[in-house]
Specification:
The protein is mainly beta. About 5% of the residues lie in helices and about 30% in strands. A hairpin with a 2-residue loop joins strand 13 (about 315) and strand 14 (about 320). The longest helix is centred in the N-terminal third of the chain and has 9 residues, at about 5-10. The relative contact order is 0.15. The protein binds copper (II) ion.
Amino acid sequence: MNRRQFVQLSAGVSALLATARRAQAMAQSPRLSKWAQRIRGVTDIPISAPSRDPVFKAAVDFHQIEIVEFSDQLHPALGPTKLWGYRPVNPLIPGVPTRHLGGLIVAERGKPVRLRATNRLPGQHILPVDQTIMGANLPQNRTVVHLHGGHVPWISDGGPFAWFGPSLGPSFQNSFIPGSPAGQATADYFYPNDQSTRLVWYHDHALGITRLNAYAGIASGYLITDAIDRSAFGSSFPSYLGIPIIFQDKIFVDPATIALRDPMWNLVSRTDLRTLGSLWYAHTYDPKDYKLLRNQTLTPPQPSCVPEFFGDTMLVNGTVYPYLELQPGTHRLRILNACNARFLNLNLFVADPSNPDGVTLNPRTQFPVNPPGPVMTMVGSEGGWLRRPVRFTSGVPVDTTKFTGNLLLGPAERADVVITIPSTPGVEYILYNDAPAPFPGGSPTDDYYLGNPKNPIQPLPGTGPDTRQLLKIKVSASGVPPIPTPDLNVLALDPILPVAVPTDPVSPVPPLPVPALNAVLPDGGSVKAIRNLTLNEAFDEYGRLIQMIGTATPQQGGGFGQPYMNPATEIAQAGSWEIWRIFNTTADTHPMHFHLVNVQILRRQPFQAASFSGVPNFTGPARGPELEELGWKETVKCHPGECITLLMKFELPALPFTVPTSARTGGSEYVWHCHILEHEEHDMMRPLIVD
Ligand SMILES: [Cu+2]
């Protein structure tokens, strides 16, 4: 069932729907050559060096960053790209210039971090701002630091209402941290780091402009490490950290074609952002591209938000189409999908040196026939170690009927991966993505690759636009040295899985048992609530397609979706466990992200979305989570027409100071939302309150 059918059935507006969506056939970027530059790593992306904390002294690592506008060369054939982002005040390696995705922080488990962030952004955004989105009429240089995946007090969570800059958001309470500076331009955050080894990340979350700020570059990595990590992966820096692999999709301005392809750009963009390499972001809600409900009194403004943004060019670690040189041996890749909306199905192929494009596609399936590269063994996800390492053998295309693939990552999902490169000098591999965008419905015009029969935008052999070829890996004696072969059994020493996960899981994993209300779990806590929740499609007052979260209680006007601003419905008791059953009535897979809590996926089960009345109406048997989901997660793929059952524990972190309750919402104010950033912002987010 495609997205359009879902809306017809769920909203009953079939007669008013616009023509079938063809999404933004709007590639802008010049044809940039692939593999023209080396990937940036931990020695040339600025890392922050900790110093002694002004209050807690040696017990806390003190990091200082500035949030600034700067320029960076993202590809040799582009001019400098103006970006917003983080700059460490005290870089670990001096002399590294301010760079895209800079500000990487390495934290030690059990040792808190104070992050002091100073907002030095100029008053006008580098991207067109749609003022009709809630909050976007406030100053454009507001920002807030959200530690994505962090177990943090709510005043350091960095929620949408806690922005700082030329004004303070109503939930800004950072001054409760002892030693916090007074004033509006600087904010302190306190991160306890009582979490096992994992890649978390920090990024902007300001109300109304999150999708723009994150796309503009306000994001970086935050690695939590510990003794178990170092005993498995070696204790020398930076080898145990592994190699960050951070994916983004973007579009760049080409002044030679912009007037033809986007005549509005020069009206809505800042005058200094019309140059070769400036960031481009969709700003027109064109009913030829997106569904529009036509009986509304208002029509979409210019600039306008769009339902999802998909780039035409892939970046890894902040540069376009780089290559990574590895010495033979074992390597650890810390993969993060940091795209605004694009899912990635990762397969590693042996490149074909006789083909300038590297891969040869099966004409029927449009999937490479190249032999698979080394096995990718996943050992961890957003919530730390997996129950057992999971081997991805590659050569597995996306199956949109089963929502599976090889290593499939939605926006904000992470994979901690080990690969062993055989000692065959000169061999090259291509990390390849075939996930449709949007996922799983897919529009061929969001899928950029040489020879795509359904996309009028075509690269040349060896150039972009290409959203399938992500990274070239070259085997070279001058590449990154290998790490010692890790003892993956050491992961069993980390007691992280108290709940009903099979000891020796095999695929397919059976549905995991769902604890009953008041059931006592291994830590002595009990299940205090079982909630039925919904993911919904609707239209806003301009007729634009929006996504919403709701309970299973029908709302006035139809559907279940509730705006973010409605009073909180998910209010959990501190220390309690809950079961959430989330019914996805839409046609998209939504990567739902939970602040504060990690969750365990217990099962997924199909239900009849078209006739869903709030009472579970399952249409088939439940299945268990995927093997790579057998651990704790904070971003989970909620597939269309399925109910996902999650187990979660609402535990607040222990702190050396007391925090107030939120004046805006009561309790500890967090959120849960879709991590497709265009969905989150409009309006797929709800409060999550812990009392
Ligand atoms: Cu979504």
